[in-house]
Each structure stands twice: as C-alpha cells, then as structure tokens.
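HUMAN: Mind making up another protein with tokenized structure?

ASSISTANT:
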Amino acid sequence: MEYNILIIGGNGLVGKTIARILQARNPHINIFIGGRKDGNTEKHLKIDVTDPASFKGIADKKINLIILSVNDKSDNVLKYAIAHHIDYLDITKPTPALVKAYDIAGKEDINSRIVFSSGWMGGIVPGLVSILSKDTNDIQGVKLFVYYSVKDLAGESSAHFMAENVAVPFHDYKNDQPVSIRHFLNTERFDFSFGIGKRSAYNFDVPDLYILNRVERIPNVSVKMTYNSKFITWLLGSFQYLRIFDILSLKERKMIFGSSGNGDQAVFEIVVKDKNGDKKLSLQSTKGQAELTALSAVLHTEELFRNPHENNVYFGHQLHEPLSLLAQLNAYETINTNITQ
C-alpha cells in the first residue's frame, strides 16, 4: 500500500528533522512538505494553517497522515483531518491549546486516528512513567525534571511559546487538585545524571502535567526545569519574582528566549513515587531536544502505519507498549537511558 505523509511546518527545525529520520528509516513512504512558501518540487505544498482554502493540495496528493509541527491556533488542520478522515499527529501544542483541541476532537465523530503528542519531547514521558510502576493506580506522584541547554539548537516556536507564556500562571497538581503557579519560581534542588550534577530547578509548564493528572489520574504531578547556565536559571527566577516579565513587551521577551546554539545534549528525568518507594528514569539525547522530539514523532508515525490502531483520539504514549517504546528509544544511537531505584 502506498503511504503518503504530509509534514506541515516541514521547513522548520523539527519538521526537517522528522523528515530526515522518517525517510532514512522508511525509504518506501512518500513524504510531502507543507509550508507557507512554494517549494521547488511536487513534494512541497504551499499550505498556510490560517487559511483552510490552502489545504486543497492535501486531497490531491492522497495524504494518509498529517504531522503538524507548526502552531495552528485555530485548529484548522485538526478540523480538516477529522472532516476528511485523515490520520493526524500534532506535536506542537502548549497545555491550553492542547486542552482546547482535545475537547474539539472529543465532540466529533472520529473516522481516523487523531493523536495529540505535544508532551515533553514528543509526548513520550507518560509512556515511560508506566515502566517505573507495574500499575499506574499505585502511583502517588510523578516529578519531571528537565535540563535545557542554551547551546542546543532551538526552533523559533520554542522561543515564541516561552515569550508568550512566561508571565501566564499555569497549574501543577497536588492531591488531585490544580494549584496555580508561575514559571521559574519554587526552586527544588535535583541531582541530574549524565555528569550534570546538582542544580536548582524551577516551575515549568508542559502538557504532561495535564495528561498525567487528568488522563492517567496521577494525583501529584510537577515539572521543574534548569538551564545549563546556573546564572541564566537564577536570572529568570529573579525576573519572575520581581514581575519584570509582566512589564516587558512580547518582542522583548522573544529576545530573551530567542537564542539558539549549534547543538548540545538534552536531558530529562522522571521520578515516580509509588507504594514501593521512588524510581527514576533518566534520558539523554546527545543531539539535543529537536532530534528527540522528531524521533518521538517518527516512532508514533511508524506505529500508526504498521499496527491496526482503531479510529479514535489518542495521546502519543497510548499508541505504544511502554517497554517497546523504551527499547525503540534505546536502539537509537544518540539516546541513552538509565533506570535507578
């Protein structure tokens, strides 16, 4: 069977990386790139997510799956995929946008596979949580610690998200209740793996907070982040404490978060507490967060076209058996994982 995949946002950093990994692993599939500018070949489609009239080429190319790697605030691509019975994989949405899109999909008659995979690094964290406890009903709490390097390659969308949302309160969960918090406050010391060592980590909003509590029903969930530079981590915390982000313009906030390096490692660590104590899974991507996010999207894509998942709405981790997901990550040459108790 011919399989045609469209990557909307395929000219961006993560979109290009998805295309590279996907084509290398699956040379038989056809990959089309969607973007706001015309491309040089028939594999490039001019698509503007704000203009549904530009989606005509999707039907012309008989697309089986749309991978969305660009911000679609109005969910036009999601609505098109549902209406035309096309599989859909979204890796872009911050928490409020994810909740809105999930609600839209939940009200529709679904005749394709609709997959939301906007959690940290392509939505793999909740799947890895399941490895650390035999029964998610026994899990009392999950903490996610993120190490982010300003030397890492970063796409424009990452900077734009932080600039838009750094001054906006969000929720973590304590005793199954949402608690309003702000980015870069409430420091917690954590001993990171892979030679990083002890760092102060601060509040950070990722969709896993919502997914782990509202979908997986884990009562206590938090996410903390630290930068590779201790000074930058402290400075952002000070800016938030003094409410400086509140008075800066969006343009000024973009300048603060808009740096991108030539590449560095990305690390996250999951700490699960259940009746048997604490367990930790540490994951390192030596080629950075864009590579890992793209790999996760590729693993979800391969799962969709290789196995007969029913037409339904999914989160990315729900497509996989947890141990199979871990094995596939470990098989990739730039990914390292450790599990400790």
